[in-house]
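step=predict obj=Ribose-phosphate pyrophosphokinase n=335
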Amino acid sequence: MAYHYKRQNGHQHNGEKKNRNLSILTGNSNPKLAQAICAHLDVTIGRAMVGRFPEGEIQVQIQENIRGKDVFIIQSTSTPPNDHLMELLILIDAARRASAERITAVLPFFGYARQDRKDRPRVPITAKLVANLLASAGADRVLTMDLHSNQIQGFFDIPVDHLYSINVLSRYIAKKNLRNLVVVSPDVGGTKLARAYSKVLDAQLAIIDKRREGAMTTKVMNIIGDVKGRDVVLVDDLISTGSSLVEAAHALKNAGSLDVYAAVVHPILVGPAIERIQNSQLKELIVSDSIMISPEKQIEKIKVLSVAKLLGEAVGRIHDNESVSSLFEKSAVEA
């Protein structure tokens, strides 16, 4: 049976020999997103058993013939990151030993990315370590989205396709027709991302100057820009415990802003994050489905937007050896 997939322009390719060689596998981190990507491509997800031995070791078996196929393994290295990273590495190794023609690791969320440089003595660079592990396991290329820092692309010695979810999230924000919108970066380091959103949304830009008082706590010092009497959107690449974002929303309200929204790509949401968001000044937290949110964390304030179409289109283009650069506005994300 020939696989076929539907493209964004509405055309459908089927019966072509190259599409018969497409195989998509997934671990346990985000099977719902993997299924949605397969639905966009109009293919059936590959059969693979990813379980545990009694003592907790990860057990993998690919339960279909992938010899000579173009294999894409979809797995976010989200909570628990160690388990999901090992699942990905073992799946890659299994695919390599099963004689896959090419293996692409698809990481909607690339974990271990926050340690991307030596900012203190005697600390690791885990982003580089994970890049090495993926290549050593047998990955031929990587497809990922909204890396914590762009420099991580250079840690790989294999091709990397780096997508951005800015168009997915900004379209939703634009439909709200917010009043005198201001895009706010929660820290100086996120200014580039905030500037990209302000350009796409044709909005003003503001920056929060904060001081980190510990690994988990920050204190807002100043707000650079005019937010009084305006709706604001805080933008960031990830939210973990929610401390920084909630503190920023509180500071913006105190500075006279109207409704405070947040657009954050990767919803890690650990510890007291849900309680903090629920009790915060945030009107709505807009996230992607790069990380699966468990049912107990799905509160009314959190809006989840799917990136399955974006990732599915990229998988189809990589499979056909076509360019993926048209899937995002390069000029916007590099502003």
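step=describe
The chain has two domains: 5-164+308-327, 166-305.
step=end
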